[in-house]
Amino acid sequence: MVEEEFRIGVVFVRLTCRSCGVDYMIPKALHEGRKRDKEYWFCPNGHQWHYAENEEDRLRRERDRLVQDAAYKDDRIKSLAEQRDHAERRVAAARGQVTKMKKRVSAGVCPCCNRTFVDLARHMVGQHPGFVAEPTADEHVH
Predict the structure, then answer these.
(1) What does the pLDDT read at residue 6?
(2) Rounded to whole angstroms, how far apart are CA atoms 3 and 26?
(3) What is the pLDDT of residue 91?
(4) Structural domain contains residue 134
């Protein structure tokens, strides 16, 4: 495609159709627009033309995709960190409840009826046989 510029009030670009060989002119603004947006235009005999993606366009598109991927991964990392923090707070709260319960039981307070007993073990077996305390991983069963 041969390109020449002419000024007749408006700047035109002279093109030659590669299919039929006809010379024609289109406004330079339209020509520049088609270079940017890659849309089609037609020669006077109806042959369709467009500019293909060039290396700069391909690199720009790839850069934009990589920026989007990085932003998605940053958001995902932030979301997972928030989930981890929430889970850690839940674990800490559960540990606190277990510690509170152990202190109360070691002081002789029944975890079921909140009464204090000197011999809590005998009380638990006799009055609350269904209550079974599961040993934790850090406790050793003897």
Answers:
(1) 67
(2) 10
(3) 96
(4) no
- Structural domain contains residue 119: yes
Contact criterion met (CB below 8 Å) for 104 and 111: yes
Q: Which runs of consecutive H residues, i.e. helices, occur in 1-142? A: 28-37, 55-106, 120-127
101: in domain: yes
Q: Is the pLDDT higher at 83 or at 114?
A: 83
3-state secondary structure of 57: helix
Mean of the pLDDT values across residues 54-75? 92
Same domain flag for 123 and 62:
yes
Spatial contact of 21 and 47, defined as CB atoms under 8 Å apart: no
Host domain of residue 28: 4-49
pLDDT value of residue 17: 92
Cβ atoms of residues 27 and 10 within 8 Å: yes
Pair 64, 98 in one domain: yes
Q: What is the number of domains present in the chain?
A: 2
Residue with more model confidence, 93 or 136 = 93
